[in-house]
Every structure is written in structure tokens, then in C-alpha cells.
Amino acid sequence: MTDEISTKNTTSPKYGKKHLAFLIAAVLILAGGLVSVGAVSAYAKETDRQCVAVLKDGSKAAKAAKASFASASDALEAVESTTLPAEAEKSRKYAEHPGTEAVEAVPAVEASEGVTAVAAVEAVPARPSGAEFIAGVTDSGSALGKANTILTECTSREDVASITAATAKVKTAAKTLDASVTALTDDFAVFQTEEATRIAAEREAARIAAEKEAARVAAEAEAARKAAEEAARQKAARQNSGGVSSGSSGGGTKKSSGGGYSKPPSSGGGGSYTPPKRPSGGGQVGPGGGNNGVCWGVNSNGVGIQVPCP
Predict the structure, then answer these.
(1) How many domains does the chain have?
(2) 234-251 pLDDT tens trace
(3) If you write DSSP's letter for every residue of the chain in order, what string do you get?
């Protein structure tokens, strides 16, 4: 935006009063007669008074327009920042902030037979995007810059009218620009608050996700440790079991406390064996009678064994 409002003002009109008086006297003819010098002097004094008033008003409007331009420039520069007031993180660019559509109000609906209750929805006005707010300021600034330049010299009632009209245009354009700047500044403040909330929520979500991931990794590590311990225990158990089996299943003849024996043919009958009584005449009894005092018997499983003769 360029400041096209002239600020070269004066507090008094620049014209020659005598020249103006003679000029008016030469052209103003009322009712077929020449206007008196007294009437011309009064007209000139009123013109002088009006010129002084409109020039002061125009100067004031020009200064206000300059202030509006400066405020707009500061606002446009401020919204370029991505640094949040109370956060170390950087926000998104305000110009990329999207707008939202308006939401119409919805009255509440009470529950009734076959009808589900519906809560009331308040109306939400449409919110322009960041780019639209920025465009509002730049467009308003351009309109103010294009306003007619306020004259700084006044010599006639025509000048009074021209200055008055130009001053009104500048005032209106400056007021519009100020409103656009206020809207931009307010929305930018809301945007920064929203960005701070968003960043805080994302940071909290990241923290929770990190804690969950750490817990998952720890659980997997603990499960792996227990699985390794169980595998080691089972391996040790198998090794111990294999040693006992090889020691007890080796070949050879078992020995009892009563001496060695060889397995006899399996007996066809079941039940326990009652060794026959030794004959009164002496000697050995049993199938192996006379075999060093060893007789045949049957254990509880029906397997024949050699036992000492009774």
C-alpha cells in the first residue's frame, strides 16, 4: 500500500482577498444591479471561514489516513510470524489457515414415542480464511490510497466543496481499512490460540504413544526372557531324563541281593508261585532241584523267576 494522501496542509486559505472581492463584484449581478461591496466583503469572509474549516478537517483526515496505513502495514507484517507467544514450536502460516462455513442453528427436539431426542445446535457464523482476512486489509488499503487527494489550498466555494467531498471519501476509506485491520488482528490472535492448543494436543498424543511403545517393547522383552528361561529349563530336564534312562536300560543280567539268576521261560499260569516243600528225605525241590538250592517261582506280573528254595 502506498500513502497517497497529501499532508501538506495549511490553517488559512491561500488567496488574495482583494482580488477575490473585485472578481466577485465583476460577476455577481443580482436583480439587474451590481452587488454592493459590503455584500461582496461578507461573502468573502464566509468563504474564508469555510476554507479554514474544511482545510483543518482535511488535514485531520489525512493524518488519520496515514495512521491507518501504518496500522495496516504493522498488521500485515505481524501475521507473517509463525512464532507462538508462549510456545517454542512454530505454528503453521496464518495465510494458509482455511476458513469455515457457517452453521445454522438447530432447535432441540424432545424425545417422544419413536423420536430420539436431539440436542440444540447454536449458530456459528462463517469464518473467512487467513488469506481472505489479509486480502481484506490490502484491498481496503488500496481503496484508501485511491481516494481523491485532499487539496491544501482553498480560494473559493468550489474548493470548499471539493475538499469536503475528498475528506469524506478519505474518512470512509480509512474507517473501512481500520475495521479490516481489527478483524485481521483479532482473527490472528484466535489462530495463535488454536495453534497452541493443537501443538499441545499433538505433543501429548506423542507422549502417550511413546509410553505405549515403550511398554510394548518392555513387554516383548520380558516375554522373550521368560521364553528363553523356559527353553533352558526344558533342555536341562531332557538332558537329565536322558542320563537316567541310559543308565537303567543297559544290557546285562540284573542282580538281586540273593545272587544272580537267568530268566526262565514264561509260565503259562498266572498268580503267585508257592514253592513246594522240601521232601522229608532232603535234597532240592523245583524244576531246578539240585541246582545249588535255587528253585523257580513267579513274580506278581506272572513272570518266572529263580528264587531260593524253601
Answers:
(1) 2
(2) 999 998 886 554 444 444
(3) ----------SS--S-HHHHHHHHHHH-EETTEEPPHHHHHHHHHHHHHHHHHHHHHHHHHHHHHHHHHHHHHHHHHHTT--B-TT-SSBPPPGGG---B--B--B--B--BTTB--B--B--B--B--HHHHHHHHHHHHHHHHTSPPPPS---SHHHHHHHHHHHHHHHHHHHHHHHHHHHHHHHHHHHHHHHHHHHHHHHHHHHHHHHHHHHHHHHHHHHHHHHHHHHHHHHHHHHHHHHHHHHHS-SS--EETTEE--PPPPPSS-S---PPPPPTT-S--STTTTSTTEEEEE-TTS-EEEEE--
